[in-house]
Amino acid sequence: MTGKGEGRAVTTFSDVVLMAALVAAGLLAGLFYAYACSVLPGLARGDDRTFVEAMRGINTAIVNPVFMLTFLGAPILAGVLVFLHWGSRSLPWVIAGFVCLVVTLVITGALNIPLNDALETGGNDYAAVRARFETAWVRWNVLRALLSTAGFGFLVTAALTRRA
């Protein structure tokens, strides 16, 4: 038999995981959004060498512990929430958020990272390297921005549904 205190501890843990997932998903959505509406349009105004070298530098700098914690943490935490919210009315929203965040991760690994790798090893014919990279990378980034924003929105809805 469980007492009130034990049940509250589970709810508190679930709340902490939900808030952490919300923060991570929000940061991820914001990052991809910022790329879509400012970083890439700004770089698009530059010459080929500036664009390629800037993206090479960004691609190197972004692989850091803080980003990786957010990038991997958002879908992992959302996945944990699926189990913590099992049987609750917020479960469909949690599952939707989890799916969107996992698809964002898959797109990054399957499409954006190979483009980043090709950019890195593409040599110094900057016009050709940029031509093979820019349009595809921008397209997939916009999709990541939309999916990660949807994932964040679904988790917000889960939090609101849980409290209703």
UniProtKB/TrEMBL annotation:
What are the entry keywords?
Answer: Membrane, Transmembrane, Transmembrane helix
Q: Name one Pfam family in it.
A: Anthrone_oxy
Q: Is-annotated flag, keyword NAD?
A: no
The answer to keyword Transferase applying to this record is: no
Domain of life the protein comes from? Bacteria
Q: Which organism is it from?
A: Kibdelosporangium phytohabitans
User: Which residue stretches, if any, does this entry annotate as coiled coil?
Assistant: none
UniProt-listed InterPro entries: Anthrone_oxy (IPR013901)
Q: Where are the transmembrane segments?
A: 12-36, 62-84, 91-113, 142-161
- This chain's protein is named DUF1772 domain-containing protein
